[in-house]
Amino acid sequence: MFKLVVRKLTAGPKVADTRNEFSAQIAYSLIEEQEKQRASVDSISFVGLLADHRYCGISYGEKNKFRELLQQDPMFWTNRPFTEAMVCAAVDDVRFLPYVCHMMMEKLSERSLWRLAVRGALYCRCFLAGDQGYTDWPPIPTLPDNLSSDGNVPEDEILSVVDIPSGKMGFIIGRKGSSIRAMKQACNAEILIRSNKGTPDKVIIIGPTSEVRKAEAMVRGRLLRLC
Predict the structure, then answer these.
(1) Nearest alpha carbon to residue 195 among 227, 222, 171
(2) Rounded distance, CA 154 to CA 140, Å?
(3) One digit per residue, pLDDT tens: the chain, 227 residues?
(4) How far is CA 186 from CA 37, 75, 107, 183, 189, in A?
(5) Of 130, 132, 156, 192, most Cβ neighbours within 10 A?
(6) For residue 95, how many other CB atoms are within 10 A of its CB?
């Protein structure tokens, strides 16, 4: 997930302030849902985001070569020292994303802006929690009064993590991603795969409570079929 991040750290133990984090991927998904009246099943690449006329409308095929290199070597960006091409690619991220962020913020409704803040905070709890978890982090943003008084109160959004037994993630994903794609189509929730060497595999689900529970049941149902 690509992000524009401005993060403050408190004095003492380092604690991320998620109120200053903007995720272009989450914003893209919410805008798609606004405009198409349903959640977006697919994510979008940085190249695809730049090419979309709603946000930037430029061709940036040079970035594709770095994506191919990353697919060949997942540790590609840990190589030191950076080559000139790597530095240019990183600079381009910073150069384009503030404008993309501005264009997205212009399109997001007030309700979607609240959901963006909530989902951003939940994503951070997935990927940025430290040794103490996130017990001392800022709370999840509350629903603004004007949204809670319009008679159409949005459902609370939650995070759920399902542990997957070793070697079984392929069954959850399905052939060429068919199973996980079907789950995303059936549920209005973000479904993420977290599979890092040396740590347990997990399926991370974020979204409205009822949709998260539905996705949970589908994942656990597939696991039961393995028994």
Answers:
(1) 171
(2) 15
(3) 444 443 333 333 344 444 455 788 888 888 988 887 655 556 777 888 888 999 988 887 777 777 777 778 878 878 889 888 788 888 877 888 889 989 999 999 988 998 888 888 888 777 655 555 555 566 788 888 787 766 677 888 888 989 898 888 988 998 888 898 899 889 888 888 887 666 678 898 988 999 999 999 999 999 888 76
(4) 14, 34, 26, 5, 9
(5) 192
(6) 10
Distance CA 199, CA 123 (A): 18
Q: Is the dihedral of CA 60, 61, 63, 64 positive or negative?
A: positive
**Helices 110-127 and 24-36: angle between axes, nearest 10 degrees:** 140
Q: How far apart are the first and last CA of the chain?
A: 34
Type of residue found at 113: L
- Tokens of residue 84, six digits: 């000139």
d(CA 62, CA 41): 26
